[in-house]
Amino acid sequence: MIQLPDLPLLTTTQDKLERWQQTIDSITVYSDRVSKGKSPFSLYNKPRNHTFKQVRDVLTKMCSGARRCAYCEDSVADEVEHVKPKDLYPESVFVWENYLYACGPCNGPKNNQFSVFSSLTGDFTNVARGRSVPIVPPEAGNPVLINPRLENPLDFLQLDLVDTFYFLPHYGLNTNNHKRAEYTINILRLNDRDYLVAARAEAFDSYRARLSEYISSQSLGVGEAQLDKRVKALQRMQHPTVWREMQRQQTLIPELSDLFDQAPEAISW
Ligand SMILES: [Zn+2]
């Protein structure tokens, strides 16, 4: 998971979302805001809806590869995901910064799972609502789940490029941030799905091969335009986290440091 680029909506689209949100916010009772907030979202979140078409267009520009999911970077993103679940946070149903494009296999299990560090006690608190319990606001607190719209997941996570291709909490984190990393990895099942782990290992090979090709082309005197094309193709690949980690960890892995020594400009691609 990488931090997604901060792309703006058209003013008209932003205004529309804000108006829809104000309608929900004007409902006095929380449980009504929850129940009545969901139906306009289902109603408007349709391919033919002009506002949501623009929402989806901009979310698409944030995706890697051929519209890959912002969480797993592997499957096609086809669901407008609320990072903060709309069942718990009706005040965020139409909030632009709460949206990203995700795939079903990520969005499904995450569903309404959510946890916070309680504002009262500071403790990790699961605020997911069980069935047949009163619909009351979740305990206040800062979210545990890392939000790639607002923060850099790689400040919290690192990817093991040498052996397992598992995500791990970044070294040196404080207790809460370590918990955030573990929680995000688990809720999104980033290590539990074998096909994701295998795809990250394959992406590592593909990125390495593309960088080698670039170096060979450069030594053969291929023109700038062709080289630029190769760089852009690499930047459009899925699993961008693998590439970011290759840049970050290149001095620690001899086969990578050798390649980056030959093309030091690749550090900033
Ligand atoms: Zn996904």
Can you walk through the features of this model?
- This protein starts with 10 loop residues before the first helix and ends in a 7-residue tail after the last helix.
- A hairpin with a 7-residue loop joins strand 6 and strand 7.
- It contains nine helices and seven strands; from the N terminus they run H-H-H-E-E-H-E-E-E-E-E-H-H-H-H-H.
- The protein has a three-stranded antiparallel beta sheet with strand order 4-3-5, with no helix packed on it. The protein has a two-stranded antiparallel sheet with strand order 1-2.
- With 269 residues, the chain is mainly alpha-helical.
- The structure holds zinc ion.
- Zinc ion binds next to helix 4.
List descriptors.
7 strands, mainly alpha, 9 helices, single chain, binds zinc ion, 269 residues
- Count every helix, treating DSSP H or I runs of 4 or more residues as helices: 9
Helix content: 40-55%
Bound molecules: zinc ion
Run of helices and strands: HHHEEHEEEEEHHHHH
**Spatial shape:** globular
Kindly state the number of beta strands: 7
User: What is the straight-line distance between the termini?
Assistant: 17 Å
Whole-angstrom Rg: 21 Å
Within the largest sheet, what's the order of strands? 4-3-5
Q: Helix and strand layout, with pairings?
A:
Blueprint: H1 11-25, H2 30-44, H3 50-62, E1 79-82, E2 99-102, H4 104-110, E3 115-118, E4 124-126, E5 141-143, E6 157-159, E7 167-169, H5 175-187, H6 194-219, H7 224-235, H8 240-249, H9 254-262
Antiparallel strand pairs: 1-2, 3-4, 3-5, 6-7
Helix pairs in contact: 1-2, 1-3, 6-7, 6-9
The structure holds zinc ion (ZN).
